[in-house]
Structure prediction request, 357 residues.
Amino acid sequence: MNETETKTKKLTINWISIIFWGLAALMVAVLAFVLIQFLTPTQTTWTPSVQSAALEGGESQTPAELPEIETINQEETLIREANPRTIIPARDRKDVIKYTIESGDSVFGISQYFEIKPETILWANKETLNDDPHMISVGLELNIPPVDGVYYKWKEGDTLESVSNFLKVEQDDILDWTPNHLDRTNPVIEADTYVMVPGGQREIQQWVVPTIPRGAAGVNKTIAGACDTGEGGAYGTGSFAWPTNNHFISGNDYWSGHLAIDIAAMTGDAVYASDSGVVVYAGGISGGYGNMVMIDHGNGYQTVYAHLSSINTRCGASVYQGSVIGGAGSTGNSTGPHLHFEVRYFGGFINPHYVLP
Prediction:
């Protein structure tokens, strides 16, 4: 190989090296450009020119003036923070529902649970309870109205005027109760249809044992087992003591349909004479009372102790305040053990809470 060929070969190699290095540099530049475009966010804005906003006819549109921002005194503002919780308002019940009696229930307790008066429950269950709260029994179904008033069963011959007068309400009270579904222009109500009468009321038929006074002359002979006590015997002190060791209510309190109080007690718990007197009745009796003791205190007062599991006294016996006369129980119409306690004065019923300490 001569000197000329050697120079030509070296020159060719140099040009090839330059071309390769140039291509490499170009590829690096392209790669760098792509990375920059990919990693850098871009935002395209368009600013309209004044000329492009020209109106037809050659008139130009001038930009609208923005209102000035008023500064608010932060000390005089009320800041309300956002509350993410949504509370659904409770809506009043409108329909009559069914409730099944359970052990330990009472008309008074059920009325408290549903926030209505106990009379409302008696009025809504005339055919079942016949106005007697002692007629409830475990498993019995009761109508529970949504509001206080009378759930009335329409009778043949009834009119809006006669029913509203009987239940002491206005006719509009019946018509305006939406669930009754009455047409105001022609309010036709078929017999045996139940109608809710909000605010209605009527007299309650009382189912109580007649008062039995001491002495042969005044004894009520219509009651089987009434005592012929004769004259004499213990007399009351005029003050009363709790007839049980417990001093709280379990079941019915005193109200117009229950002229007594139901005192909490377990079966067999001692029952004491609330005041001294003569026993004028001791034994089982109808009317839901079960085993009952009645004491005449000789001063116009009588006390009654019902639903007893046992009786520890006898007819005509003199008893003294604090004497054990029986054991608490659940005889008669009762859904659980307790003491039914009545206080009467010259034949009338008074609230025992008024005389108990």
Observations:
- DSSP finds six helices and 14 strands in the chain.
- The domain at 208-357 is CATH 2.70.70.10 (Glucose Permease (Domain IIA)).
- The chain has a mean pLDDT of 83.
- The chain has two domains: 97-198, 208-357.
